[in-house]
Amino acid sequence: MSTGMKGYVFHGPGQSAWEEVPDPAVEEPTDAIVRVDAVTICGTDLHILKGDVPEVRPGTVLGHEAVGEVVETGGDVRTVRPGDRVLVSCISACGRCRYCREGVYGQCLDGGGWILGHLIDGTQAEYVRVPYADLSVHPVPGTLTNEDAVLLADIFPTAYEVGVLNGGVRPGDTVAVVGAGPVGLAAIATARLFSPERVIAVDLAAPRLEAAKAFGADAVADANEDPGQLVADLTGGLGADVVVEAVGVPETFEMCTRMVRPGGRLANVGVHGGPATLHLEDLWIKNVTITTGLVDTRSTPTLLRMAAAGRLPTGQLVTHTFPLDHMQEAYDVFGNAAETGALKVVLGVPQHEVVPVHPTS
């Protein structure tokens, strides 16, 4: 392993830097150390930098998504070994607690859940320590590039589990996705796996609405131009069967509650930094189901197989690539998506340049 590793360190709201940090080491027998070959930036990382996630302590390396090569494992790790190319999941799972036994890994009670880049050092570095490696890293099929695979660490399982599955998308449904950022686009793509009658995308930015069409939206609506009326017009006045909130601000959540039909489902995916009004004076009579959730990543093995079979448009989300040490530039591009047109940025070594840690015999 290298000496003088570098990582992207959070120093407090509005303060961060790509700088030297200690090399990670195996601390528990269930740990793995992974060399990071590809990493991406999440909207949640931007929330952290704004100070919206106070649990993140200054000095923490950010990031919770990566693809790389296992370089060291603890004595209890059984499913991967040094030399394996793996996906580092955004969720770590002990596998033993009540929630993990139910497949609800995001709520792990024994030091798992969302910890990378949150409660412990994360993946936006040259190397990362991954706790509970047996359930928290996934071997990557050889047909998938690093750039494709890294989008399955968080974006696609979040959209699929918290949006599409929680929303109960069924054949023939009208699905409205509010927010056509990366998670919203992944929700459009994975909703189509269930043969809805139509998918409607709502966003403020024209380029994102164009992207929504490319990902399978049948209709798009500018958020400033009464998208609720479009949904009503397309559904005979009923409203959408399923509405996915993929922004995380009060205005869009309240828009979603007006857009869902009586008896419909509203799946909140967006990360909210403040309260929203729940208009129970209107909703109490409408038999509406509202779900919230943190991704569990129980679907990651399935999504990896689907992507390897060409069933998921993962790579289409990547609009910008950077070397790993251009982290600040990548954050600037991703954080100014309205100007740059960024959807997902991927940092790392181009796959043909990745040198195996252990030469093959």
From TrEMBL:
<comment type="similarity">
    <text>Belongs to the zinc-containing alcohol dehydrogenase family.</text>
</comment>
<dbReference type="InterPro" id="IPR013154">
    <property type="entry name" value="ADH-like_N"/>
</dbReference>
<protein>
    <submittedName>
        <fullName>Alcohol dehydrogenase</fullName>
        <ecNumber>1.1.1.-</ecNumber>
    </submittedName>
</protein>
<dbReference type="InterPro" id="IPR002328">
    <property type="entry name" value="ADH_Zn_CS"/>
</dbReference>
<dbReference type="GO" id="GO:0008270">
    <property type="term" value="F:zinc ion binding"/>
</dbReference>
<keyword id="KW-0862">Zinc</keyword>
<dbReference type="Pfam" id="PF08240">
    <property type="entry name" value="ADH_N"/>
</dbReference>
<dbReference type="InterPro" id="IPR020843">
    <property type="entry name" value="ER"/>
</dbReference>
<keyword id="KW-0560">Oxidoreductase</keyword>
<dbReference type="InterPro" id="IPR036291">
    <property type="entry name" value="NAD(P)-bd_dom_sf"/>
</dbReference>
<dbReference type="InterPro" id="IPR011032">
    <property type="entry name" value="GroES-like_sf"/>
</dbReference>
<feature type="domain" description="Enoyl reductase (ER)">
    <location>
        <begin position="12"/>
        <end position="347"/>
    </location>
</feature>
<keyword id="KW-0479">Metal-binding</keyword>
<dbReference type="InterPro" id="IPR013149">
    <property type="entry name" value="ADH-like_C"/>
</dbReference>
<dbReference type="GO" id="GO:0016491">
    <property type="term" value="F:oxidoreductase activity"/>
</dbReference>
<dbReference type="Pfam" id="PF00107">
    <property type="entry name" value="ADH_zinc_N"/>
</dbReference>
